[in-house]
Amino acid sequence: MKAPRRPFEPDPGHAGEGTNTIMATSEFLAKLIGPLFLAVGTGMLVNRGTYQSVIAEGLRSALLFYLSGVMSLLGASRSC
After folding, report:
1. What is the pTM of this model?
2. How far is residue 23's CA from residue 2's CA, in Å, rounded to a whole number?
């Protein structure tokens, strides 16, 4: 039987000290985005030729290449 902890003693295995909101948010996002990634990955495996032509066209088109870089930068700056 474990000895009872004192009220002010932190739980050594829990850094949030009672706040479970960050983990709950992460789990919610994983459940939301996970099936989408699974569907896209399956589509990429099944339609490999289509995705290869889409990527090749994206690399040839300077405007599409530029816009994808701008969107990547905007996405990275919003997550900070």
Report:
1. 0.49
2. 26
Count of residues making up the chain: 80
Closest CA to 70 of 78, 51, 55, 37: 78
41 burial (CB, 10 Å; 0-12 / 13-18 / 19+) is: exposed
Tell me the two tokens of residue 20: 């479970």
Tens of pLDDT, residues 52-78: 998 888 888 899 889 988 988 887 766
Secondary structure in 3-state letters for the chain: CCCCCCCCCCCCCCCCCCCCHHHHHHHHHHHHHHHHHHHHHHHHHHCHHHHHHHHHHHHHCHHHHHHHHHHHHHHHHHCC
